[in-house]
Amino acid sequence: MATAKILIILGSDSDLPTMEDGLNFLKTMGVPYALDISSAHRHPEKTVALAQKAREQGIEVIIAAAGLAAHLPGVVASHTTLPVIGIPLKGDALNGLDALLSIVQMPKGVPVATVGVNSSRNASILACEILSIKYPQIRKRMEELKETMKNEVEQKSRQVAHNTAKTGSRVKKTGSEGPRGRGV
Length: 184
Description:
Blueprint: E1 6-10, H1 16-29, E2 33-37, H2 44-53, E3 61-67, H3 72-77, E4 84-89, H4 97-104, E5 113-114, H5 120-131, H6 136-167
Parallel strand pairs: 1-2, 1-3, 3-4, 4-5
């Protein structure tokens, strides 16, 4: 899988540090991606061209990150039928709430999957989950990731139980039950 399957569009080069966690995840997963800077407001022609040409370039998922008015993911989604994942980025005044609401409140017919504010890793994970429908090797890596996360939680749970046993505190073991004794 040498051809990029994910196109990542950032509204500004100042967004690169926020995107690093997501980019590192994709590198770890071995999923090729293309990265570009474009602005829905300062260079709308380029933004539209990226969205319209993505499929013919082998792209299967687009991640678009933007802050403030955060129109980039919506503009991209309006010019492609590929799945678009929006990452709202923190701005100065509203800590990313403005971007979150702008991305999540898309009009009917122009959906944008939206992750949490500054959540580039979750956007990359979601993109990989979408690709895992088609690519068995990505599915296998995603299954391994889920198993690793499960094992980490189990290890932390054992550690907490061990530490509380030392101090005499009680920790209720619930097994597969939820916090109130109901099945999860």
